[in-house]
Amino acid sequence: MKVMSKLLNHLHLDPKYGVLNVQSAQVVYELFKLIDFRGTGALDDIQFTSFLQSTTNLSQSHIEKIFYIFDLDRSGSVEFDEFYLLVCILVAVNNNEAKQFMYRHWSTCFELLDEDGSKSVSKKEFETLGVLFNFGSRAVDKIFAEFDVSGTREMNYNEFKLFMFAAMDTEMEMEKQQQEKKKKKETNNTTQLKYIADYLNKKRAKNKTKKSVQPI
After folding, report:
1. Looking at residue 171, what is its pLDDT?
2. What Rg do the C-alpha atoms of the chain give, in angstroms?
3. What's the pLDDT at 182?
4. Domain for residue 53, yes or no?
5. What pLDDT score was predicted for residue 152?
């Protein structure tokens, strides 16, 4: 999923708590009231779809599945608390903090994923919300292969918790490798530039020497 909203570019998560800071939360509340033009205190599926279509590149089918997930009380609408959580996820994704968000709020994420209240998350359920967090189908296959310890093809609460810790560790390791790769590339570029500069200086010095020698 890609976030395409200019408004969400200006919203940020509190680094300490991993949720929207006070200013951002106020903006989201005003946004919710604008979308809820009837003043019902909740968004129906049409309003919810309109919001996600204008802020992301999600398909209609994915939006419908996500609406079902965030309609926690199965009332056919999404209230502000649920909308607030959705925006937190969108901001986290937009700021490349999706996995950190899942790590901080893994209990809430588990409850969202557990659509049928079975106290476990199936592969299908994980794929639905995985769309928001940019977990592709191959990544989901790998996750379940590694963390479905019980072999039930579902992740229970403890298995999901293990996944969160592992995902964060993997993310940190990948970030470290990326930084090292970037540093190595910068070092190589500096070395190449130095080599070119030395070569040009030697060439200039050689040409200068030739010009200074006058023929007899």
Report:
1. 59
2. 26
3. 81
4. yes
5. 80
Which residue numbers in the chain have pLDDT < 70? 167-175, 208-216
For residue 124, what are the contacts with CB-CB under 8 A and spacing of at least 6?
none
Q: What angle do CA 129, 145, 110 make, to 5 degrees?
A: 30
Alpha-carbon distance 193 to 196, whole Å?
Answer: 5
Question: Taking a C-beta distance cutoff of 8 angstroms, is the pair 100, 92 a contact?
Answer: yes
Amino acid at the residue 216:
I
Number of folded domains that form the chain? 1
Structural domain contains residue 150: no
- Shortest CA distance to 55 belongs to which of 31, 74, 75? 31
Domain housing 80: 1-95
3-state class of 76 per DSSP?
Answer: coil
Let me know if residue 72 belongs to a domain: yes
CATH number reported for the structural domain that contains residue 40 in this entry: 1.10.238.10
Q: Cα dist. 97→25, 75, 89, 155, 194 in Å? A: 17, 30, 9, 23, 37
Does 117 fall in a domain? no
Distant-in-sequence, close-in-space partners of 190: CB < 8 Å, separation ≥ 6: none
Q: Which residue has the tokens 């893994």?
A: 106
Tokens of 206: 């050689």
Give the DSSP H/E element, type plus range, for residue 50: helix 45-55
Q: Which helix (H) or strand (E) holds 207?
A: helix 157-212
